[in-house]
Automatic annotation (TrEMBL):
The keyword Oxidoreductase applies. It comes from Elysia marginata. InterPro entries: Met_Sox_Rdtase_MsrB (IPR028427), Met_Sox_Rdtase_MsrB_dom (IPR002579), Mss4-like_sf (IPR011057). Gene3D superfamilies: Peptide methionine sulfoxide reductase (2.170.150.20). GO terms for cellular component: cytoplasm. Keywords: Metal-binding, Oxidoreductase, Zinc. Its cofactor is Zn(2+). This is Peptide-methionine (R)-S-oxide reductase. Methionine-sulfoxide reductase that specifically reduces methionine (R)-sulfoxide back to methionine. While in many cases methionine oxidation is the result of random oxidation following oxidative stress, methionine oxidation is also a post-translational modification that takes place on specific residues. The keyword Nucleotide-binding does not apply.
Amino acid sequence: MPATKAVPAWTGALLDNKKKGVYYCSCCGVDLFSSSSKFDSGSGWPSFYDVMKDKDVSRLPAVDIKQDRSYGMTRTEVLCGKCSSHLGHVFNDGPQPTGLRYCINSVSLKFKADKGGTSNGGGNNNKNNL
């Protein structure tokens, strides 16, 4: 079942995770974000400046985006590209090289550490799709 409920800011289990590895969808297991694109945004949720590519179609990102008008705001929602579960939102105030901030709910992610101690690459600039 797709994740729909966010945890309150500053309470998520993965917020302060500094290990190298991959963050993947807690519902379907697809890889979404590399630890190499994680940064401290000060928002209270795990934040990333880039997404991984789809494993089956490498020209596509591992996430989908759509307009979200809930709670009287207009935002860009981030969904898992495989199972469409809610992951969080993306904003245009992130660091370079993408300028994006994927603000993701900890409950929608699980983490697998790299065995060799190196981080997997991201590599899909999704800025033009916002």
